[in-house]
Amino acid sequence: MRRIVANIAAERIGAARAFYGDALGLRVVMDLGWIMTFAGDGGMAPQLSVATEGGSGTPVPDLSIEVDDLAATLGRMRAAGFGIEYGPVAEPWGVDRFHVRDPFGRLVNILEHRPPA
Question: Is the pTM value of this prediction over 0.85?
């Protein structure tokens, strides 16, 4: 397997640029007008999670995105006017995270792994 791509149905794909591009820092790698694909720098291993809950009693998020600097990402989300629905919180399983909805109503789990103590 080379990659897994999450596809999000939306009527206004241009709205994705502010959330996934500006606030999360992903690059637009394809824009055909009817589909816009974002990518991050560096190599990623494909992953797929199946869950009964989102952890700590939260709903299962549609996407989880790991970032290098949670505080900076949180600041950009707030500055762009995206409402934070959960967190930020330090979870007992070693991640700091918050939940936010993208412009299409999808629940996105933004996380950063804490270094071991």
Answer: yes
